[in-house]
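Hello K.,

You asked for the raw outputs rather than the summary table, so here they are, unedited. I folded two proteins back to back in the same session to keep the settings identical. This is the first:
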Amino acid sequence: MAADHHATPGEPATPSEEAEAARQPARRPGVGMIVYGVIAALVIGTASFFSIQAATAGADLRSNLTLIAPAGAGGGWDGFTRSQQSAMRVNGIVNNAQVVNIPGAGGTIGLGRFSTMQGQADTLMATGSVMLGGIELNNSPVDLSDVRPIARLSDDFDAIVVPADSPYETIDDLVADWKQDPASFPWTGGSVGSIDHLIIAELALEAGIDPAEITYIPKTSGGEAIQTIASGTAKAATSGYNEFADQIEAGRIRALGISSPERLDGVDVPTITEQGYDVVMANWRGMLAAPGITDEQFEELEAIVTETSQTPEWRQALEDNEWTDSFMTGEEFEQFIAEDQEKIAALIEELDL
């Protein structure tokens, strides 16, 4: 959930982004050390694979390429990575592209492993806003400056929803009730510290509510969040719009606003911003290269990712998953990462996590 959604190549991702992010408790002393104390145990199953791959990799990066999804099978990162894999294969961009999953701690277990793969140009890893949140929540000893960001490829925007019979028709209606007693107004969404949680925090700040007073019930999917508001356990939910779309269209839940900068094509839901609350946040995803590769290798990998983003298969994946094309590379992408990391860190601090 803004929040990642078994996806086979070309199929829409289904479970939420936060299903892939470890369900993080409120930050407490030592949690980062605890998480990273188990990295070796969690990645031991992939160690021999990467050793063999490194020993056999050829100079032609278009012959064999490994794509790491830093999450379990079935999540949004998994679906995103397998959609890339499919587009590469079908269009002959890479002859043999394979996906390896390294789940845990909002993607930071995978990031920790990837940061040690010095010079391994034949391996890429997916990244995104969930990973930036994981870096903050887990006091990660590594961040994206320890690897080489290639490109941002897609954005997934959150919707704020309520039950169809809710008295709230607009964000203003919801905020007016929320402000009466913030701690008694339960929200639900993805894991603690997820994009879903951060969007609620940003809305709270805009509405003059202390984010530390938010009552938040973390769930692993949009379906679970819908059940939570349907039962009355929570009054409102946030998650990727694509996770709610079917239920919105069926009239079972009502979407009050979307966290996009402008209305989504074909979606008759106002943005949160146009309702007077400057809340714009994307669950973005992109690709990373390993540290220590040459500039020539990096340029070739950037070309591979760029070509993949222009294929009909990738365009279809964007449409199927209701992702927004946000392709970005180079210094612009690096600057975006720095700004997004700063924003996420500030919101997590506001939440007192």
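The second followed immediately with the same parameters:
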Amino acid sequence: MSDHLQIEQEIESCRTQLPGRTLPTFLTIGAMKCGTSTLHAHLASHPDVFAPQRKEVHFFNQNFLKGLSWYADQFSDAGDRMCFETTPAYLFEPDTQHRVKAALPDAKFIVILRDPVERCVSHYHHMLRTGREKESFDVALSLEMERTRDAYEGVKNRELVHSPQLNWFSYVRRGYYIDQLEAWVQVFPVDRFLVLDFLDLCENPQSVVDTVTNFLGVPGLLIDPVLRENAHPRGTLPSAQKRRLRELYARSDARLEQFLGRKLSWM
């Protein structure tokens, strides 16, 4: 039996034990350090939408072995409201989309993307603030493959459910957005995805929220335009380091533009 079929059968068995239980209609799946906390706060304030108290439930990566009943418990107070959760790691971590497909086959997905160079720098400074990163930026990037290779393969091959090292130190790899999106659209129809630009969320948040509510089919929401969740001062890089990263992402960004049929703000 294939791993994917086994997961589907295990979740189907769980679903038969959850009559009438509420599960999410949509997920905000990423990307990390791209404004998901702010968008989550806006959507959680919608009277027709419910989000659990814990923003990042991490069911489909860290907490999958707790079972679908545990996941449904996170939404037990939803009533008739549309449910969602936001876990930015879902977009990036391999094989997550198959677990989501088995549990939430009709779900929609919101993705926010940011200039991958800025995202990389923001991620690095986030790890500095948490104390998990001790190295300089250049050294941290040079160590990325060594730190994360085994973890990435372990999660991909289902030898691990989750790896903190992969979550903490995947500075560059998370910016190859097209690889991640293509993995998801192999499992779900492309029209289930709404891809947003981080800069649009920063500069015109009301317009972005209007786009999201239209995508979800819920009434519009008047938001607080100055709300910023989990925002920190942006780190800076010398121009030579920026050019090097820009070159690393050039091919990926070109494929992303072709996939989306439009340029994003950094292109």
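The first strand starts at residue 26 and ends at 30.

Happy to rerun anything if the numbers look odd on your end.

Regards,
P.
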